[in-house]
């Protein structure tokens, strides 16, 4: 069985972060491992507290995993601060991590900050170049590119700009901006559009985490990058169509839809 590692923050309410990733990996029938970068106290209504793990302890978790069980793919989510980013970058290079999918998580759906402002540059310098695919949403792509994205053409320009710092693939997710939910992958200088109609569902907590970990699962199974994104897009669209409704705010996805 292929093994997938998620390096991310914990969401105690189970909708995003490590918990969403482990659910996704398990539903893909793969073996899930986790390195926790931060504990968050959050639910569907907001993020009420963040407790970062020390960089040394992040390093210790990575050492334990790589010295024992080598992951076939790695998903990176919330990394919180520059020191944590630096240690993840060092360890992934030391252990030659493969099939890295980086979701540059900055702000939660509910509005809470999950990455320190001054950490964006460090993320761009130390982690983005290591990734097989990065998966920014529109606001994250804007923060990384330094210009506003209002159209499909702007998404294209952003992907091209990011290709100068990214290792390989750039997937810009259109979920935040348009009446449609079109995502653009730029991979090996080729454009791939993944088009879906926007589902009328306010419960999108954890969609980014789920999409990126599903991509990592598909890479671990040996699919190409474009095929991995296509399959992950189908998974997220199915989960959104299920219209699961849990909690008082922006609710999470129902991963069990895929195993009914
Ligand atoms: N209402 C929707 N209908 C269909 N697909 C959607 C909808 N909202 C988001 N998506 C899709 O879900 C995936 C995640 O996109 P989104 O832009 O929401 O990322 P994100 O902001 O990182 O997610 P999160 O809400 O976890 O922060 C993308 O494939 C996007 O197109
Ligand atoms: C620990 C953690 N990681 C990531 C997210 C982003 O997910 P969302 O934007 O759907 O809230 C989150 N809320 N919490």
UniProtKB/TrEMBL annotation:
Entry's EC annotation: 2.7.1.49, 2.7.4.7
Catalytic activity: 4-amino-2-methyl-5-(phosphooxymethyl)pyrimidine + ATP = 4-amino-2-methyl-5-(diphosphooxymethyl)pyrimidine + ADP; 4-amino-5-hydroxymethyl-2-methylpyrimidine + ATP = 4-amino-2-methyl-5-(phosphooxymethyl)pyrimidine + ADP + H(+)
Keywords: ATP-binding, Kinase, Nucleotide-binding, Thiamine biosynthesis, Transferase
GO cellular component: cytosol
Limits of the Pyridoxamine kinase/Phosphomethylpyrimidine kinase domain: 11-254
Domain of life: Bacteria
InterPro entries documented for this protein: HMP/HMP-P_kinase_dom, PM/HMP-P_kinase-1, Ribokinase-like
A Gene Ontology molecular function term of the record: ATP binding
Pfam families, alphabetized: Phos_pyr_kin
Pathway(s) per entry: Cofactor biosynthesis; thiamine diphosphate biosynthesis; 4-amino-2-methyl-5-diphosphomethylpyrimidine from 5-amino-1-(5-phospho-D-ribosyl)imidazole: step 3/3; Cofactor biosynthesis; thiamine diphosphate biosynthesis; 4-amino-2-methyl-5-diphosphomethylpyrimidine from 5-amino-1-(5-phospho-D-ribosyl)imidazole: step 2/3
Gene3D superfamilies: 3.40.1190.20
Family: Belongs to the ThiD family.
Protein name, per record: Hydroxymethylpyrimidine/phosphomethylpyrimidine kinase
């Amino acid at each position: 069985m292929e093994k997938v590692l998620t390096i991310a923050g914990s969401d105690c309410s189970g909708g995003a972060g490590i918990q969403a990733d482990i659910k996704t990996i398990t539903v893909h029938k793969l073996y899930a491992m986790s390195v926790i970068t931060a504990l968050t106290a959050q639910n569907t209504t907001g993020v009420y507290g963040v407790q970062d793990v020390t960089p040394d302890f992040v390093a210790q978790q990575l050492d334990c995993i790589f010295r024992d069980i080598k992951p076939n793919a790695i998903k990176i989510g919330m990394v919180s601060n520059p020191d944590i980013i630096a240690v993840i970058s060092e360890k992934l290079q030391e252990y030659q991590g493969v099939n890295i999918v980086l979701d540059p998580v900055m702000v939660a759906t509910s509005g809470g900050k999950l990455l320190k402002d001054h950490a964006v540059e460090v993320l761009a310098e130390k982690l983005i170049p290591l990734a097989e695919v990065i998966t920014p949403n529109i606001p994250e792509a804007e923060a990384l590119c330094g210009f506003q994205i209002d159209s499909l053409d702007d998404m294209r320009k952003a992907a091209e700009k990011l290709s100068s710092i990214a290792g390989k693939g750039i997937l810009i997710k259109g979920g935040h901006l348009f009446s449609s939910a079109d995502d653009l992958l730029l991979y090996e200088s080729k454009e791939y559009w993944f088009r879906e109609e926007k589902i009328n569902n306010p419960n999108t907590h954890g969609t980014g985490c789920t999409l990126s970990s599903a991509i990592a699962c598909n890479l671990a199974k040996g699919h190409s990058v474009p095929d991995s994104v296509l399959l992950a897009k189908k998974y997220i669209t199915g989960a959104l169509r299920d219209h699961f409704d849990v909690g008082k705010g922006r609710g999470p996805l129902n991963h069990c839809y895929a195993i009914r």
